[in-house]
Amino acid sequence: MHKHSRQALSDGITPLGAALEEIADAIESAVEDDAELDIATALTTEPEAIELAALTDRLITHCKTLAVGLGEIPLAQRSTRAVGALRDWSDLASAGPEADTRHEEANNPAYARMLALIARSMLKALREHRSPRAFVGRTALPPIAPGQGDQ
C-alpha cells in the first residue's frame, strides 16, 4: 500500500490524479466517438432487423449516458439545446417503445432515428458547453451603425 503525505494530498492533483484525468478524457472521447458513429448509422442507413435491435439498444445506452452528462451541468448554465434534448429524452424514456403506439417495437427504424436525433442533440449540447465559442467582435471599434454593414 502506498503512503501519501498530507502535503501531497492538499496540493491538488497528484501525478496519479493527472493520469486518471487523462484516462477519463480518453474514455469520454471514445464514448462520444462511438455515439457519433451509431448516430450516423441510424440516420443514414437501414440496417437489418438484428443489427437494428442492437443499434437501438446502443442508442438507448448513449442517450442514458449523455443525459447523465447533461444533468451534471448546473441549470443556469444549460443551453436551450441541452434543456430541449433532456426534455425529449425524458418524454421518450417515460413512454418507451412499447407504450408509444407510433413505435410498436424496438425494431422500428423510426424509433432508432428518433433516439439518434435526441443523442445528437445531447452530444452537441455537451460539446458546446465544454468549449463555448469565444466572442468575436469589434471590441476596439464602435458598434456598426444600421446600414453600415450592408456594403
The biggest beta sheet reads: none
Identify the overall geometry. Answer: extended
Mean pLDDT: 80
First-last Cα distance: 71 Å
How many structurally independent domains?
1
How many beta-strand segments?
A: 0
Helix content: 55-70%
The SS-based structural class is: mainly alpha
Q: What is the chain-wise order of helices and strands?
A: HHHHH
Q: Report Rg.
A: 22 Å
Give the low-pLDDT segments: 1-8
SS strand fraction: under 5%
How many helices in DSSP terms? 5
What does this structure look like?
- The chain is mainly α.
- The protein has one domain (19-130).
- The protein has helices at residues 6-10, 15-44, 49-71, 80-99, 109-130.
- The longest helix is centred in the first third of the chain and has 30 residues, at 15-44.
